[in-house]
Amino acid sequence: MVFQGLPVSRGIAMGRSFVYAPFKIKIGESYIGNAEKAEHNARFNEAVKKAAAELRELQEKMAEEDPDKAGIFEAHEDILTDVAIIEEILKLINEESYAGGYAIEQVYEKYVHIFAEMDDDIMRERCADFRDVKDRILRIWAGVEQKNLSELDFPAIIFARDLLPSDTATLNRNNVLAIVTETGGNTSHSAIIARSYEIPALLGITGIMNSVRDGMTAVVDALDGNVILEPGEAEQAGYLQKQADYNRTAEEIRKFRSVEPVMADGTPIDVFLNIGSVSDEELEASAFTGGVGLFRSEFLFMQGKNLPGENQQFQVYKKAVEVYGTRQVILRTLDIGGDKTFESMDLPEEDNPFLGCRALRLCFQKTDVFKTQLRAALRASSYGNLALMFPMVGSLEDLHKAKYYLEECRTELESEGVPFNKNMSVGIMIEIPAVAVMADLVVHEVDFASIGTNDLCQYLMAVDRLNPNVAAYYQSYHPAMFRLIHNAARVFEKEGKSLSICGEMGGDPMAVMAFIGMGIKKFSMAASNVSGVKRIITRLTMTRARELADKLRLLSTAPRIEDLLKTEMERLIAQ
Ligand code: PEP
Ligand code: MG
């Protein structure tokens, strides 16, 4: 069986299928009669035993591979077997006639709320543990098998209807051979993470969940966009050959990873890194990148079920700036909303989340969360070269309001005698077209800006970046995109202020050639794109790049622009 999808992270994988459907249960108020109590007692005790067995098995498995995770599962077992909690649940069943599931939900939620109110960050983090244990025991109560990406303990191809950024942020990436989903587009955050982890991914395959089963052998060809379920032997051999050829070419390109990003005529270009955490794996790329051009801070909020407190955030931001030393780290303030939602925040359901209360708009509603982050960032600024960037700025009022809260935090810290860098650079993302159009007005009010091409394209083209039905309309190479970016580039160059590209186009060597010709000299990208971009930079001259930008300006459609860029890139590579 062959299926076609949108390849969003290149590569070829072959292996066993793992069908991922996260367990979600809504427990409503529910009571039982006396006759059912004995059964609910027994079923609850059985569920505790089964959950304890699962947790012990996980501890054993993780003991060597990931001792920290093993420790977490041990703590979960302590919560699960806590005598007081068990007694409370049984009491609700026996004395108040609560149905077992409802009793479990009530007692665990009580503890979640108690811990959530605590001042101490570490104690507050315990909420997440209580929720995890509650989810585990309710899942067993409902008779559903365990399925969790962070606990995946064998190499597998993940099939899912949809993968949320929070799923991908916690997945055990060593065991993920490839990702296949029914929804999602090239700039969905799952696609972005797959690329940065170099996991082959195919999205937008409607209906594949009806055909795939756990354990099936599958091939994912994320070069040509095919998924094959239960391939024959000859087919498997063909794909193994294709995989070997692809890996060889990728290895060739990887040789450029550590070269200096200097153009053939000596012009230096900044190649910066996009990160979502300060894990050793992500920061490994600090060895071959000039700074961090985009730290997507919201991923820190997606890793647990609680909001990270000021100290926890401070430690993370401090680690990033310390690793990069004098090199710049641009921290983007929270960009929640759109496809990025959190368990730790009660966000209202919206019909059009990408057009809704997202990023700064949400921060203006939840000013305590916003200010906690700003304080943590300011404190970290005294440990290195930290810059702050506001996402989804749509007007000067947005910018003024964000700066107002920043000023409040500065004043607070000053009165508390806490040190911070008073000259920290403050910039914005240009990703709402309105702000791109008025770049000449904005430029005077910021120290720098960075273009978020993912959202800029989504909003300029009126195309939901997640919707596979309209993926063909999401044209990054649309002439309007280049015109808008060229306009901003001219304005920032004239004012002598830094303008970078940190959306996915910043890691696309074809687009980078044109942007250089438009005067942009700073690009921030996933680690996996660094080699390809550096290879092109080292072969390009400024004269050639300008000629390319001039030619591009005369073209009227995305396919024509793509052809031009492709031809130019092939010419450079062949040199
Ligand atoms: C962008 O929109 O281009 C961007 C970099 O931000 P995000 O992808 O996180 O929305
Ligand atoms: Mg964006």
- Count up the helices: 22
- Large-scale geometry: globular
Radius of gyration: 25 Å
CATH topology (fold) name of the largest domain: TIM Barrel
Helix share, percent = 40-55%
Q: In terms of per-residue confidence, which ranges show pLDDT below 50 for 5 or more consecutive residues?
A: none
Give the CATH H-level superfamily of the largest domain.
Phosphoenolpyruvate-binding domains
CATH architecture of the largest domain: Alpha-Beta Barrel
Overall average pLDDT: 92
Provide the spatial order of strands within the biggest beta sheet: 1-8-7-3-4-5-6-2
In CATH's first tier, which class of the largest domain applies?
A: Alpha Beta
Largest sheet: 8 strands, mixed
Q: Give the strand tally.
A: 16
Secondary structural class? alpha/beta
Number of domains: 3
How would you describe this protein?
There is one protein chain. This protein is of the alpha/beta class and 575 residues long. It folds into three domains: 2-22 and 148-243, 3-Layer(bba) Sandwich (Glucose Oxidase, domain 1); 34-141, Orthogonal Bundle (Enzyme I, Chain A, domain 2), CATH 1.10.274; 262-574, Alpha-Beta Barrel (TIM Barrel), CATH 3.20.20. 49% of the residues lie in helices and 14% in strands. The protein is built from 22 helices and 16 strands. Strands 1-8-7-3-4-5-6-2 form an eight-stranded mixed beta sheet. Bound molecules: phosphoenolpyruvate and magnesium ion. Magnesium ion binds at residues 391, 431, 452, 454-455.
